[in-house]
Specification:
This protein is an alpha+beta fold. 49% of the residues lie in helices and 17% in strands. It folds into 2 domains: 183 residues, Jelly Rolls; 116 residues, Homeodomain-like (Arc Repressor Mutant, subunit A), CATH 1.10.10.60. Helix 3 runs antiparallel to helix 4, helix 5 packs across helix 7 and helix 9 packs across helix 11.
């Protein structure tokens, strides 16, 4: 897989015009004109750059990680360094929007370098892009215009600080708009919760718990074609519980059924549920139920 260590090498690979700064490129077609078209397709590649893009009137698919994303109007996409990218026939003439790319070293030593690690949308899959309302789109575009103006100006000692400040503002707005998207997309969240529960049920019923152990959240997220972080945050917004907590609830409910079989010891129950260490199962059960597995079994017998 080809990897690009510098922004200029990545830009050259895309067949785009050279940038005004060795660590920053800004392509904007918010008003008049159109964005330059990159190369039509690419095998999987990686680079050391952050990318933020909003492209409209675009056709074609972009593979981001394991997910294929169909470009849509008003969709804002965030890509972190070393994410795997691949696209096919993603070029059409007359593209609108913007594309900002900057090398991770561009913000090194700044406050933004620490802040950007907290923005989870950089670890979302592309099909979890931020879908902007017309009003939100205008707000983002106004920030990009400010970045573009500074980018096109003759560079001086203030240029970098101003651009980084504008980038920080852009990310804060994006964070706000993502919160709105989580709240407004309840139907998607409910469906995701249903699919998550279905995946767990199928895994449990297939006997894989005993054979392969407790499934990882990453495994379930991959089955649902979403990122692990997006899955957890979506369920957290909708139910107040993380994916780990939902998984644990499934395990405890399954444990209750097995504990009703008096012929099995607590250790056998733990192993059947995929726990490598029975004491951990007992601690988890007591944490969730307030009583130990043994106490639960005795209580049920009494009833």
């Amino acid at each position: 897989m080809q990897h690009f260590k510098t922004l200029s090498a990545y830009i050259d690979y895309l067949n785009l015009p050279g940038s005004e700064h060795p660590m920053l490129s800004v392509f904007s077609a918010i008003g008049e004109g159109f964005l330059p078209c990159p190369k039509e397709s690419s095998p999987p590649i990686t680079n050391d750059c952050y990318s933020i893009s909003l492209k409209k009137i675009v056709k074609g698919d972009l593979n981001y990680g394991r997910t294929k994303y169909d470009f849509a109007n008003g969709s804002l996409i965030f890509i972190a360094p070393r994410q795997v990218l691949q696209w096919d026939n993603a070029v059409v003439y007359k593209q609108k929007g913007f594309s900002i790319n900057f090398h991770e070293d561009f913000i090194k030593g700044t406050e933004l370098a620490q802040q950007i690690k907290k923005y989870s949308f950089f670890s979302y899959s592309a099909n979890e892009a931020l879908h902007l309302s017309p009003k939100e789109e205008k707000q983002i575009e106004s920030i990009v215009k400010n970045i573009e103006i500074e980018y096109q100006n003759n560079q001086d000692e203030f240029s970098k600080d101003i651009i980084i400040s504008q980038l920080s503002t852009l990310f804060k707005y994006a964070n706000r708009f993502y919160e709105r998207q989580f709240l407004n997309r309840k139907e998607l969240s409910n469906n995701l919760l249903e699919q998550f529960n279905l995946q767990l049920s199928e895994y449990f019923e297939s006997g894989q718990l005993k054979e392969k152990g407790i499934p990882s959240i990453e495994h379930i997220a991959n089955k649902l074609s979403v990122s692990q972080r997006y899955l957890s945050e979506t369920l957290k917004k909708e139910t107040g519980k993380t994916t780990t907590e939902h998984l644990q609830l499934h395990l405890i409910n399954e444990a209750k059924n097995i504990l009703l079989q008096p012929s099995k010891s607590i250790s056998e129950v733990a192993y059947e549920l995929g726990f490598e260490y029975p004491p951990y199962f007992s601690r988890l059960f007591k944490k969730r139920e307030g009583i130990s597995p043994t106490e639960y079994r005795e209580k049920y017998r009494m009833n």
